[in-house]
UniProtKB/TrEMBL annotation:
The keyword Translocase does not apply. The lineage of its organism: Eukaryota, Metazoa, Chordata, Craniata, Vertebrata. This is Solute carrier family 22 member 7. Its main location: membrane. GO terms for cellular component: apical plasma membrane; basolateral plasma membrane. It comes from Dryobates pubescens. One of its GO terms (biological process) is monoatomic ion transport. It is found in: Apical cell membrane; Basolateral cell membrane. The keyword Ion transport applies. SUPFAM superfamilies: MFS general substrate transporter. It comes from the Eukaryota.
Amino acid sequence: MKFEDLLLEVGGFGRFQVLILFSLCLLRINLPMHFLLHNFLAATPSHRCAVPHQEAFANLTAEEVLLVSIPREPDGTFRSCEMFSQPQFHLLLNSSLQPENSSSTQQCQHGWVYDRSQFTSTISTQWDLVCERRGLNQATATFFFVGVTLGAVIFGYLSDRFGRKAMLLLSLLCSVAFGMLSAASVSYVMLAVTRTLTGVALSGISIIVLPLGMEWVDIEHRTFIGILISVFWSVGNMLLAMVAFLVRQWHWLLVAVTGPCLLSVVCLWWVPESARWLIANGKVKQAHRHLLRCARMNGRKDFTVSPEALRQMATDTSPGKSYSYISLFRTPVLRRISLCSGAVWFGVAFSYYGMSLKLTGFGLNMYLSQFVFGIIEIPAKMIMYVLVNRVGRRQSQAWSLILTGVCIGANILIPKPFTSLRSVVAIMGKGFSEAAFTTVYLYTSELYPTVLRQNGMGYTAFMARLGGSLAPLVFLMDEVWRSLPEVTYCGVAVLCGSAAFLLPETLNARLPEGIEDVE
């Protein structure tokens, strides 16, 4: 007897599963609130060099002081990172006579003055992460995703070893602790360390929620569950836009997005451990207790499977045998799955965060961009629900990622003045990108066997977060060539999307229990 046969007896999708999914979906909302927080936490408002008071300025207005102290850009705005080494009083007579000699300018010597009309404070304004320190600003996102990368490896292994629920609880508690410490940061170094540790903790939620939900439902509803849980990422996306709009001070913004994790701890109390995992690890008495509870809640009073019968459902491993990440590469089919799925996850995350962490440049207000990007994800997920059931997981995965790259490439060619067209193409690209992300979670959960599922999710999440870590740093390549970041995102998306064609199809297939089911 396979576990799917057992689910048919206790009810593969009833009241029991609905309550589990409701709890897990609430957990899922927490993720984008932190994963995309960099857009607002590290936003850089308009700024210029601070000009110290001098006696020579005594009879000048504030506008005249700026005119003689700070050079202008061709569009008439003040430069953000330079000031005149000596006041240029001749500009009072003709402001168009800007000095051509670069030796007359220097880097800001007395700090910066920021436009605080949109943000009360961000980490950029707190620690002057602008101009030559701009790289440190982008690095905060990379530090966070480095943490998520490490967390994927750690929680992937631990949840296969010690269970899904225990590690999910640990992940939530650590997320609350490190999130609050981040809000209390008194230096850039403290913020970088605590954001990294927050990323480690949140990674557990990221890779455990979907497999835990899918391991409790039957084949017929598996796609629906994958899409439903993914929809709540989009809900969190939109909530982030609203919270950031209301909370403009970075300390309190961190508190606001971390607080919901406490509610999630309460929601998790009711969620049972995965019966699949319990059986695969020889904990049949606990599995039997959860299955009886499932049968009662689903109205299946005739459930009579005994613990002895569950022992016969052992997979290819004897209870107590442990697996590691090396197991993902020992056999031929698993090796191909791991290499190709790792490439797909890297491409999905690299392109997704490349678009999501650059809300300016598409012609929309950044709060509106964040909200619209969240809304467009929902119809994209609905379309994917139909496609993955009609054309299959493999084709859906490959083409959604390839089309993401096509949209990014198209925006390179569209001139900047065509803001409406650029916005439409960007929103379409964001929809394809989210479709690719939605599919890859569902697809990967079906590719790996139960005894290695969390190791597989941990490894692929590691590859995804590696892509997420590199995505913010690619923005700095615009100093080499303005379009180089977009060309990079486009190329990686198309190449990694093509790797999905090498993966096996899993539509309407049973979830594999042991390695021999995959091979």
